[in-house]
Amino acid sequence: MAPPAVAAGQGGQQPQQQGGGGFGKTITGIIRMAVFWYFASKFFSPKRAPTDPSGAPSPLISNLFQQGQPLDMWLYLSEHEKFNDFSSDRDLVWHETNLPYASWGPGSTRTLALKYDPSEALKHNGSLYAHVFFAQSGYSPDPTDPEYQPQAAFGRTHAVVKYLPKSRADKRRSLLGTSPDSSEDQVASKVAGDTQNDSEDDGPLEWISYLKPNVTINLVADFTKYSKNGIPPNIAPYLNVDPITGNYYPTVFFNEFWLLRDKLIPMNETVTELLLNLEVGPISMTKWQLFMQIDQSFQIHRSYGSMVDGEGDELKRVFLEGNPYLLGVTMAVSLLHSVFDFFAFKNDIQFWNKNKSMEGLSAKSVVVSFISQLIVFLYLLDNDTSWMILGSSGVGCIIEFWKIGKAMHIEIDRTGRIPMLRFRDRESYAQNKTKEYDDIAMKYLSYVLFLLVAGSSVYSLMYERHRSWYSWILSSLTSCVYMFGFIMMCPQLFINYKLKSVAHMPWRQMTYKFLNTIIDDLFAFVIKMPTLHRLSVFRDDIIFLIYLYQKWAYPVDKKRVNEFGFGGEDDATVASTAVDAAAKEEEKKTN
């Protein structure tokens, strides 16, 4: 029986293929696959063929089709999940002949750009399904055809429409009631006002239909002979076994791995015509399993709360749109950044753990650092951040509070009804010029910081929208921490200037932080980021350069106590004593 007719202009001829991208495209593909292979959680290997109670091995099943065997394809688009109208010319949108199965070469991949007119039902949250059928050349996929052979045809149905929950109404509003940008904020205030009395979880959840603009059909090149009772668990759900022969049909895989969420088309009354990009071609067993394992890994991370919706798409976008050479450099630099972060954290803990004197160190900067870390933690908590980021920020708060205990005496005051924490300066800090210089620096810097915080907060209150006054306070304080945090590093510069010494500084930790700052400078040039964040990277460079100048201008004073409570002269005395003892011992042996 001849294949069903196809409407003019919709198929029948092999579309012209685009030329390859050459060596650069090959390198890009290799790098993408190698990196994603690294991120894949694990792969399931086929199990050993089990035996039945009699001890005989279980029978093996194999693919019904051979590599390179020519196939014909029919693709139907229908609003019904069940399809059996093979004679419908209206639903048939694409027909291809002589597709070589599991063979890579000219003509193995076919593409088609299709203009599709959606129905009124589809515009109003209707469904649309792609029904694809394959058959050996010369055979029909229609079961009612007299020439139909069950072992010569197979197919699969796939939903082209995806339903996603509608975003909740924006709860943010102008806290002053009016805004200079009236056209935008009045609408936002109205939306927020309509739902102001409702909680985030009240009311039924509304769903919106999105159409997938790309439909990629891949035939998996799988010729493995599986044990009938030992099919791997990652293969079994996709294996279509013929009940008569016991062998399996080729696996049809609708590849949506590179289909990002922002590419989906929302369906509504304004949509009059859709452009669908159709593609059919082979895919290797390894690549298919790789895509499946990565998607499964993303789902597991989302279920654990370690990944929010959209992060998987952003990771894919880096590999999809990024330059492969720049991507490789970025990965290497990111690895170095993580290593330097670890060493900076390690030396910071060692410094404060072994520190016996606060002479020359700013205790108030330690307190302000804890307050800044606490503000960032509360801001992340208010914005529904993933628990992994919250946990990291929470651990940072605990460490900063521990450093306060090393810089000051923390006591519990039980004189009142409610026990309160009382902080008292250490003797090594209060009984020398360090406290005086620290108070002077913090006094004048607090004036500058107060003006900056007040100006930024007023601007945010007038021109930006917030969910509540609490959110406004948190966002204003967090913005100030990010933008003006470098001011908190200035008291230490002032103390160094007054003492004319930097021997008390934790230089090993600062060296690693400075290296990380250089890496941040590199990212500031190659990665898109807000201007304020880019400026914040270079402001740290200025502070560290001043530190380096002070280290050069103020040579190490051997009489000053270092960060471990020892002076350089003490080390010299110990060393000279050891040398004298060794000399006397050698003299005794000679005599």
Automatic annotation (TrEMBL):
<feature type="transmembrane region" description="Helical">
    <location>
        <begin position="444"/>
        <end position="463"/>
    </location>
</feature>
<dbReference type="GO" id="GO:0016020">
    <property type="term" value="C:membrane"/>
</dbReference>
<comment type="similarity">
    <text>Belongs to the CLPTM1 family.</text>
</comment>
<feature type="region of interest" description="Disordered">
    <location>
        <begin position="172"/>
        <end position="203"/>
    </location>
</feature>
<feature type="transmembrane region" description="Helical">
    <location>
        <begin position="469"/>
        <end position="495"/>
    </location>
</feature>
<keyword id="KW-0472">Membrane</keyword>
<feature type="transmembrane region" description="Helical">
    <location>
        <begin position="387"/>
        <end position="404"/>
    </location>
</feature>
<feature type="transmembrane region" description="Helical">
    <location>
        <begin position="325"/>
        <end position="345"/>
    </location>
</feature>
<dbReference type="InterPro" id="IPR008429">
    <property type="entry name" value="CLPTM1"/>
</dbReference>
<dbReference type="GO" id="GO:0012505">
    <property type="term" value="C:endomembrane system"/>
</dbReference>
<feature type="transmembrane region" description="Helical">
    <location>
        <begin position="365"/>
        <end position="381"/>
    </location>
</feature>
<dbReference type="Pfam" id="PF05602">
    <property type="entry name" value="CLPTM1"/>
</dbReference>
<feature type="region of interest" description="Disordered">
    <location>
        <begin position="1"/>
        <end position="23"/>
    </location>
</feature>
<keyword id="KW-1133">Transmembrane helix</keyword>
<protein>
    <recommendedName>
        <fullName>Cleft lip and palate transmembrane protein</fullName>
    </recommendedName>
</protein>
<keyword id="KW-0812">Transmembrane</keyword>
